[in-house]
Structures are given as structure tokens and as C-alpha cells.
Design a protein that fits this description.
- By secondary structure, the chain is mainly beta.
- It folds into 2 domains: 7-57, no CATH class; 61-172, OB fold (Dihydrolipoamide Acetyltransferase, E2P).
- 8% of the residues lie in helices and 50% in strands.
- The chain has helices at residues 131-138, 146-151, and strands at 7-18, 21-35, 60-78, 86-88, 93-96, 102-104, 109-120, 123-130, 155-161, 166-172.
- It has a 5-stranded antiparallel beta sheet with strand order 8-7-3-9-10. A 3-stranded antiparallel beta sheet has the order 4-5-6, with no helix packed on it. The chain has a two-stranded antiparallel sheet with strand order 1-2.
- Strand 1 and strand 2 form a beta hairpin.
- The chain starts with 6 loop residues before the first strand and ends in a 7-residue tail after the last strand.
- Residues 38-57 have low confidence and may be disordered.
């Protein structure tokens, strides 16, 4: 429990402000460290104009059903240091928008994301799945393309972040009939 008047170092914590009240949500791997006294935090002067962004979060929800539509598939590259998104700075170099690391484009991770429609009876959920979750969905599924595999994956159960409709975890729902 956090105490009023104490100073804490929070790592991997998301903050959401709603009706003037700030709420904290702890991500996987989050840590809280009590600091001895308040520390004065100085931001470099050159960054004064940059807005410090705080990612808002909502609860994690569960949904299950069958993927009935693949709305889009996107190929993108991510940072080898922190998996953040990268921007091309030249034909051979990229810079991470999250950790500011500069790296060769050839060393960046090649990734995919898919926007899907998950349907269970009359309930529909429009969700986004990234690399690891896509692999969890299509493991042991036959098909030539990612779209075919997603649409043939059967019933799945997912946990997703309601703020972004991004899938956090995926598990297969065992089929009622055995082959």
C-alpha cells in the first residue's frame, strides 16, 4: 500500500485520469520501490518542448469466440532493445521512438499485427493482436496465409486491454467434438 507523503519509484505503471482523479494500473513486471526522501527530478532543457506522455489504461476484459473477420494485417519493424516502434532516419538506420536507440534497419525485429473481429453469438469484439498473440492463435492451425490461419483457428479466449482493444493473452477453447 502506498502512503501519503512518501516518495516511490514506480516502474511499468500506467496512469489514467478520470474526473480529476488519477488511477494506477500495474503492468506485468511492475515494481514499486520506496525512496528515502523526495528527489528533485530535472528534465534536460532541450526536452522542455516535448510533451511527457502518460499512457492511459482501463481494466483488462475477457472475451471468447471465433475470429469471423480479419480487418487488416500490418507488417512493421520494432526496436531490438525495447520492442518500441522505430522510425527510419536514413536508408540503413532507424531510431526507436521509445528508448531513442539508433540501430541498423537490418537488425530491427520484423513484426506483424492483425485487426480481427471476434464473435460469440451476438457479442462482437474488434481487437488487435501482435506477434506473440498471433503465434498463440495460429499455433497448430493449417492454412497458407495468416488470414486463413486466423479464420480457421476455432474458438479462442482472450484477455484484452479495454483502452486500446489490444489482446494481452490468448488461450484455445477445446472443441466439443473430438476428431
Amino acid at each position: 500500500m502506498l502512503e501519503k507523503g512518501k516518495c516511490y519509484k514506480l516502474v511499468k505503471v500506467l496512469v489514467k485520469q478520470f474526473e480529476g482523479i488519477k488511477y494506477l494500473s500495474f503492468c506485468d513486471g511492475a515494481s514499486v520501490e520506496l525512496l528515502p526522501d523526495f528527489l528533485e527530478i530535472d528534465l534536460p532543457e532541450e526536452d522542455e518542448d516535448d510533451e511527457i506522455t502518460v499512457q492511459a489504461t482501463h481494466p483488462i476484459m475477457k472475451a471468447y469466440g471465433e475470429i469471423v473477420s480479419v480487418l487488416s494485417i500490418t507488417d512493421y519493424t520494432s526496436c531490438i532493445v525495447c520492442t518500441g516502434s522505430v522510425r527510419h532516419v536514413s536508408e540503413v538506420l532507424a531510431r526507436c521512438t521509445k528508448c531513442q536507440a539508433t540501430m541498423k534497419l537490418s537488425h530491427c525485429n520484423s513484426c506483424k499485427s492483425a485487426k480481427i473481429l471476434l464473435s460469440q453469438e451476438s457479442k462482437k469484439s474488434y481487437l488487435t493482436a501482435y506477434n506473440e498473440q498471433l503465434q498463440d492463435i495460429i499455433s497448430d492451425v493449417d492454412g497458407e496465409t495468416l488470414e486463413e490461419k486466423l479464420l480457421s483457428s476455432g474458438e479462442i479466449s482472450v484477455q484484452y486491454y479495454t483502452a486500446t482493444n489490444t489482446i494481452k493473452t490468448v488461450s484455445k477453447v477445446p472443441s466439443a467434438s473430438s476428431d
